């Protein structure tokens, strides 16, 4: 059972006791509003901080330090959870009970994380220009790679068109032009600001007691969130009176059709589990209606799948099509949704969807990283279900429940990425 400990006014520790693993896990996430003014700065910041601390001023010395900690590993976290962007670090490390007699790993690992966040390597009161420029290039390259993957690009463009004016339109790691404008001084000023003003979520998985972990984290917690305010509540995305259509032309051989829908059901709604089942029945796997009918039987798509963003009440459909099939494919995607609304769902479709979700949920406790990902994200997004309750809720879903959820799904935006010769 997850225990929640308030380390300070705006720093929370969520302790997940588990002695099944050889390695423990710890994440620290600063919660920021998802907005263009901050997205690129936040994504760049955690990468720059990981380049060096006062005691470990470069990557080589950081690597040596992690080797001394029995091969501990650290990675950056940049997540978008509804209207919140989270930035921080995830660490895994050997449990103290597996270290040599007398050696401690948890305490020095937490202290290393404290140094990483609070004691960066600096030059003349700002971040090292070499670190900043190097990581800017890496981040810009990551942003540009999305455009090279046309499937990912089309899905992202649909969200940006659909969510204009909403935080969900902003790319998770920011925009290329915003990254290019960042300087070592501006990034350092931003860093000092978010240390003071960010609520902080810390998640621990391992065999150490909650009190021990809390005591070790106090020096870090006391320095964070001293002027923070609670993040705004997650907002459900609103429907439109008439669906909208957008298109772009690029040098692609295969058209990319992406469709965005709204629903009043989010991850805090009593029908959330049923909505997840609907999404899986509709397009969430190889037994879904979109896959078996639009792709396999009718051969209208090279791929067709749906995804559900529970924190925002948004459902998306992505498909790859020959451009002459645009109208037919779009109509059939909507037809399969209408079948769900009508309750035309076979027992096999329902059971396959439920089993797919339950299998995923049952595998979540199999690793510290999966536990952290599920519970930390649930806490930030406001979802109240733990894994056993979630499984029970999925098992109880009926065809009528799925149909009720499907009836709330309304088309909002269609985006088509077509080739230059279309």
Question: What count of helical segments does DSSP give?
Answer: 15
Radius of gyration: 23 Å
The strand count comes to 13
In round numbers, the mean pLDDT is 96
Strand content: 15-25%
Roughly what percent helix? 40-55%
User: How can the largest sheet be summarized?
Assistant: 6 strands, mixed
Strand order of the largest sheet: 1-2-8-3-5-4
SSE order:
EEEHHEEHEEHHHHEHEEHHEEHHHHHE
Describe this structure in words.
This protein has helices at 36-49, 59-68, 106-118, 129-148, 150-162, 176-180, 184-197, 210-221, 272-283, 289-297, 326-341, 347-363, 368-381, 387-395, 399-406, and strands spanning 3-8, 11-17, 23-33, 73-81, 84-94, 122-123, 126-127, 200-206, 244-250, 255-262, 303-309, 314-321, 410-419. With 422 residues, the protein is α+β, with helices and mostly antiparallel strands. A 6-stranded mixed sheet has the order 1-2-8-3-5-4, sandwiched between helices. Strands 9-13-10-12-11 form a 5-stranded mixed sheet, with helices on both faces. Strands 6-7 form a two-stranded antiparallel ribbon. It is globular and about 65 Å long. The mean pLDDT is 96.
């Amino acid at each position: 059972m997850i225990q929640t400990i308030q380390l300070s006014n705006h720093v929370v520790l969520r302790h997940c006791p588990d002695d099944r693993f050889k390695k423990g896990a710890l994440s620290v996430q600063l919660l920021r509003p998802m907005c263009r003014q901050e997205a690129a700065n936040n994504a760049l910041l955690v990468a720059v901080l990981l380049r060096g601390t006062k005691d470990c001023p470069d990557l080589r010395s950081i690597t040596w330090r992690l080797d001394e900690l029995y091969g501990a590993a650290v990675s950056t976290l940049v997540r978008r959870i509804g209207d919140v962007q989270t930035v921080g670090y995830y660490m895994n490390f050997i449990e103290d009970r597996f270290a040599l007699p007398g050696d401690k790993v948890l305490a020095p690992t937490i202290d290393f994380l404290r140094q990483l966040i609070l004691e960066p390597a600096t030059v003349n009161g700002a971040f090292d220009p070499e670190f900043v420029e190097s990581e800017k290039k890496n981040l810009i390259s990551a942003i540009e790679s999305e455009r090279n993957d046309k499937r990912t690009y089309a899905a992202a463009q649909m969200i940006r068109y659909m969510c204009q004016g909403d935080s969900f339109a902003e790319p998770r790691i920011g925009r290329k032009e915003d990254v290019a404008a960042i300087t070592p001084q501006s990034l350092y000023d931003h860093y000092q600001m978010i240390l003071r003003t960010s609520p902080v979520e810390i998640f621990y998985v391992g065999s150490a007691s909650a009190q021990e972990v809390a005591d070790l984290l106090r020096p870090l917690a006391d320095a964070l969130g001293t002027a923070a305010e609670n993040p705004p509540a997650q907002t459900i995305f609103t429907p439109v009176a008439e669906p909208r259509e957008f298109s772009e032309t690029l040098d692609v051989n295969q058209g990319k059709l992406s469709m965005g829908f709204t629903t009043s059901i989010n991850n805090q709604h009593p029908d959330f589990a049923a909505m997840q089942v609907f999404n899986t029945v509709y397009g969430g796997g190889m037994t879904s209606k979109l896959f078996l009918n639009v792709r396999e039987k009718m051969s209208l798509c090279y791929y067709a799948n749906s995804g559900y963003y529970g924190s925002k009440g948004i459902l998306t459909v992505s498909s790859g099509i020959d451009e002459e099939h645009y109208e037919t494919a779009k109509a059939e995607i909507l037809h399969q949704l209408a079948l769900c609304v009508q309750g035309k769902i076979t027992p096999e479709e329902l059971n396959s969807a439920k089993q797919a979700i339950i299998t995923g949920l049952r595998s979540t406790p199999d690793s510290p990283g999966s536990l952290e990902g599920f519970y930390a994200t649930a806490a930030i997004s406001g979802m109240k279900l733990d894994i056993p309750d979630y499984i029970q809720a999925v098992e109880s879903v009926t065809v009528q429940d799925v149909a009720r959820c499907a009836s709330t799904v309304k088309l909002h935006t269609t985006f088509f990425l077509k080739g230059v010769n279309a």
